[in-house]
Amino acid sequence: MGYVFDFKDAGSYDAWLDQTKNKYCLDLEIKLLMGLLSPKKGQRILDIGCGTGISLEPLLGRGLNLTGIDPSPYMLDIASKRLGNKVELHRSTGEELPFDDNEFDKAFFFTSLEFTGRPAKAVEEACRVAKDTVIICVLNRYAPLNMIRRFKSFFVPGIYTHAHFFSIWELKQILFAILGNVPVKWKTTLQLPFACGQVASCIENNKIIQKSFFGTLIGMSIKPVPKFRTRLLMLKVKKPKAYNPATGWVTRMRP
Predict the structure, then answer these.
(1) Does residue 236 sit within a domain?
(2) Is 234 helix (H, G, I), strand (E, B) or coil?
(3) Between vectors from CA 139 to CA 43 and to CA 8, what angle results, nearest 5°?
(4) Does residue 29 lie within any of the structural domains?
(5) Rounded to whole angstroms, how far apart are CA atoms 226 and 217?
(6) CATH number, domain at 94?
(7) C-beta separation of 153 from 161 below 8 A
(8) Phi and psi (nearest 5°) for 217?
(9) What angle do CA 98, 102, 103 make, to 5 degrees?
(10) From CA 204, how far away is CA 175, in angstroms rounded?
(11) Cβ count within 10 A of residue 61
(12) CB-based contact 127:95 (threshold 8 Å)
């Protein structure tokens, strides 16, 4: 088990989101998540490390079967108030998901993998319970804002003190070790975390810019089960050999 958010963390997390600039950043992050997730009506979707329900809220009213899981009872209390009975919530860790194989169509992490004790095990569990797609959204180790966060965490204890920041290469290494060399799609957002407005938003939404290695948030989409394309093979069939009738004398008995 990794770091479990306490009562103070849960309250400060929502308070942090109330700030205008942070809302702008969250909107870009959620947009990246939704683009990779591409939810369709009727699908079963699992949010691993759902926290206060911020990442599940945009999925409400779309005809989806939503489930959230988190180890913190304080975060789940806030999520329950925010989401009501529209989402099924469970208390558990990402490393030990209490679900059957292929129980969901899609599963995702939204800035929660950073706080797990065994990230590779959590990803493996996500691949086990999701049959179509797993989305991983994590804080980028090499982003300028996250470098500042990491530096501050050495002197001022906070939630980032307990976070493990990932790189694109590290994520791929974990995924390939579990699934083999499967296709992976990735994007980043918040290239300009210290600016907001129309110009900054246009830059952030540019598809070429989103392939930067230095965006604050990495979004990665993977397929848990490798897909193979079949090819028809020509089979050679041998013709049966022709056998000549046996020769010999036949004696005909007369009455």
Answers:
(1) no
(2) coil
(3) 90
(4) yes
(5) 26
(6) 3.40.50.150
(7) yes
(8) -115, 130
(9) 55
(10) 27
(11) 8
(12) no
Domain span including residue 55: 7-222
Residue 252 has pLDDT above 80, yes or no: no
Beta-carbon-side half-sphere exposure of residue 89 (alpha carbons within 13 Å): 25
Burial (CB count <10 Å: 0-12, 13-18, 19+), residue 161: middle
**Domains held by the chain: number:** 1
pLDDT, mean of residues 10-32: 85
φ, ψ of residue 219 to 5 degrees: the values are -115, 125
203-232 pLDDT tens trace: 999 999 999 999 999 999 998 865 445 566
Is 104 within a domain?
yes
Q: How far apart are CA 157 and CA 168, in angstroms?
A: 26
Written as six digits, the tokens of 48 are: 């691993």
Quote the pLDDT of residue 236.
Answer: 65
Pairing of strands 44-48, 65-70: parallel
Domain membership flag for residue 234: no
Q: How far apart are CA 242 and CA 73, in angstroms?
A: 80
Contact 189, 110 (CB under 8 A): no
Secondary structure letter of residue 245 according to DSSP: P
Predicted structure pTM score: 0.86
- The H or E element spanning position 147 is helix 144-153
Note the residue count of the chain. 255
